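CORE FACILITY INTAKE
Project code: CF-77B
Contact: R.S. (postdoc)
Sample description: multi-component assembly, two entities in total
Requested service: structural model of the whole complex
Turnaround: standard
Below are the sequence entries exactly as provided by the requester. Do not edit them.
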Amino acid sequence: MHDERVIRVLVAKPGLDGHDRGAKVIVRALRDAGMEVIYTGLRQTPEMIAAAAEQEDVDVVMMSILSGAHNYIFPRVMEELKRRGMTDILVLAGGIIPAEDVSALAALGIKGFFGPGTETKAVIDFVKANLKRGSS
Amino acid sequence: MCCNVHDQEKLALELKAWEEATQKQLDKIPEARNSFETLSGLPVKGLYTPLDLSTDDYRTSLGLPGSYPFTRGIQNTMYRGRFWTMRQYAGYGSAHDTNKRFRYLLERGQTGLSLAFDLPTQIGYDSDHFIALGEVGRVGVAIDTIHDLEILFNQIPLSQVSTSMTINSPAAVLTAMYLARAEKEGISGQDLRGTIQNDVLKEYVARGTYIFPVHHALRLTADILGFCARQMPNWNSISISGYHMREAGCTAVQEVAFTMANAITYVETALKAGLKIDDFGPRLSFFFSSHQDFFEEVAKFRAARRIWARLMKNRFQAKNPRSWMLRYHVQTAGCSLTAQQPILNILRTGYEALAAVLGGCQSLHTNSYDEALALPSEQAAQIALRTQQVIAHEIGVTETADPLAGSYYLENLTDRIEEEALQYLKKVDDMGGVINAIATGYLQEEISKSAYEYQKNVEVRRRIVVGLNKYQMDEPPLTGLHKVDPGVGEAQAKWLEKIRAERSASAVAAALGNIRRVAQTQENLMPPIVEAVKAEATIGEICGALRDVFGEYTAANCF
């Protein structure tokens, strides 16, 4: 981090999954860590997530999914972000992502995976260490 | 409920001396922590005595099992007559897949069925809708038409086994399908036993499978209550659920309070629709979590029974004792399971199940140890069921009703949970009820605040989770996890295409037209929905017709 620019984060719930306890805990923890966080609410399509990321000019997109639809949804979100030229955004995934699915998703550009039991501090530290966009 | 006045005074003096002596010890060797509290944050003292018991007499506060206010259980004989129903929540992939799992569980001694639906079904979309992509058959079974339900219950006698269905916004459609499936077999709705969750209110605050705006959703709920009271009198037409709010992070007290607040809203809605309290009161059922704090959970169940009995008798003037009885299903706490050292989840689930049984549940689901990672594998599901069987048969907790009653700590905790829940309930009442509390985001905020508190406690090691924040180990990933066939979405879409091609399009159009018409009147929507499922209309088409009239709920962004 070069200066005091506040890190902006979009926390998104893609797909039809309604489990948002983890997402909301992360939202609060990131805010307590001084970041600006926008929470999308439930049932977001890939287009909605990419549009919100663009409109809110975020540095980080975090997606939480527990329904098992990640292999369908995450690639589409990554495509949408790319289509909008947003390749300098740090994208992270949380929820239940089986270990065997991780490498294919990582190859699409998702940088971090945070499963059940993750401490919020680990997410905060990861964001700070891996932010792609510098100061503006 | 304490001893006589003379004894009380003597005891109070002795206790004071005891406390002073204890304090002297503590000055030398302090306790491990400065304060002790339950999982939900209620303070816990080092000792409870008869002085901590309520001043109400025994008959008013506890009574006998099977008698008002039912603190000690709703049946006279409790588990001496019959064990709770062992009802494992299951469902994935296609109807075929789930039928196989159901039969696997029944063969192993499960005594009731509990059906999990996939998300498209729960939100009223067909498997071939674009929004269903990747979600078909994932978290439950995919049901599009009555044909799926027929396959699902193949070789399962609906007259002999009771079925619980976790379906809310489209509850009317699944109730109709189940009834139509039974009638085809020659079984009358009068003989059907089971439960439809049909609790939409908690969807807006915790579970997320809402479809319609709140007041339209409540109209559907009332239609189901009214229809079932006449056509399916042994069917639990709603299961008012604290479970999901607890899973979303709320405390034991909030779980009781918010569940009761929702229950009050359903009762008021049904009364407004012209139903009589004792016509539907006995069919209201409940669903709670059994979490990790053993005594707090047992106390919670007992407090909830007492609150409900008094609400129904006093506030709603119910006369039938069956309307006063809190009958409920319990599931052990999914959120207490860890992905780390997951085998320990067998122990956690066992203790939680024991609390549910000592609390007097009517039906129980025990989680599988692999559920922090996937849907249960066959082997894990079997261990979960066997856990209940061990509790039922081996450890002597079913021989007498409410065996923990009279414990000074437990009775005190029961009173405190009741008291605090009633205070919350009053707060919600003062806000104008649950519908307002949802609209302002109050309930959502309370729940997520509690969830964050819990997480912070775990992270500062104020709360120890074995294997997660203490006693960690390097371990190989758990193998043998259940996998859902990724081809199920495509197969389901093809099957749906075939049904659409072969059914009578005009009959479907007429049935859907009728649903749209009735939706705009005060008439009960159940009969036209039953006709539509018989005409092989899909869940997406039926919910679509209702969406046309009711519109859709949009969540207020208050977070």
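Facility notes:
- Chain B has a mean pLDDT of 96.
- The CA atoms of residues 108 and 166 of chain B lie 22 Å apart.
Invoice: internal transfer
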